[in-house]
Amino acid sequence: MWKETSKIECIDFKMTFFDCFPLVCPWMWDNLTCWQGASVGEVVVVNCPELFHDFMIPEEEIGKVSRNCTEYGWSEPYPHYLDICLLDENTTKPDMYYASVKALYTVGYSTSLVSLTTAMVILCRFRKLHCTRNFIHMNLFVSFILRAISVFIKDGVLYAQEDSDHCFVHTVACKAVMIFFHYCVMSNYFWLFIEGLYLFTLLVETFFPERRYFYWYTIVGWGTPTICVTVWAILRLHFHDTGYVTALLPNFRLQMESLLFT
Fold it and tell me: I need a labelling partner for 20 at 20 to 30 A (CA). Which of 45, 103, 141, 250 fits?
């Protein structure tokens, strides 16, 4: 809510002052802060956006970010929002935040794993429940189970030691775990897609060979993610063999960085 309100106010200021005072560096909204217009050589300093106030120690002075107005326009913010407006990585508050998030999704995945395993046992045990529709449900359940297991394996590798560097050493085990994790996530989404596709087929076609369709569903659900992840892994190994875990860590800094592009 604060973002939309601040953006509207900034645009209003820009429309008001732009015509009267044309500047090399006009009023600008960068998705986090409104920067007032400036002439070449001027430095504009603003407080950290309201978004970050909840993640700062109350006794801590609110950080400030600046931009220089050059003949080519605005410079990059200095220091960066993530460096001045968030707590230092060595403080206890981010650690508590990460531990809380990890505990929360661990409980969620564990509950899901137990429930889905129970459902799989029931569907496999009673032959009267064996049909194409339930076979698709079973594959979807398996994909969810594999996704939960991959999360536990990933956490086991990443957090095996408290002082570990979260697999940034790029070990073979880390790479294998992340490839498996990506495969499970993609398979999960493909089986969700197949569930919808199956329902759509039931509505469009009154009579169709369900058994033959199920074979194609299986190929798409498990085969397509295999091809995609294999190609991704090969290209990643050859062209960009770094940062396998960066985008998947419960790292608040990376989450905040995404706000700059929305």
Answer: 45
pLDDT tens profile 141-171 = 999 999 999 999 988 887 766 554 555 556 7
Confidence (pTM): 0.58
pLDDT tens column, 62-99: 678 888 888 888 888 888 777 777 655 444 455 676 77
3-state secondary structure of 67: strand
* Cβ 26 vs Cβ 11: under 8 Å: no
Q: Which CATH class is domain 92-261?
A: mainly alpha
For 67, residues 6+ apart whose C-beta sits below 8 A from its C-beta are 25, 35, 43, 44, 74, 75, 76, 77, 78
Tell me the C-alpha distance between 158 and 177, whole Å. Answer: 10
**CATH top class, domain 15-84:** few secondary structures
**Rounded (5°) CA angle 52-54-56:** 75
Residue ranges of the domains in the chain? 15-84, 92-261
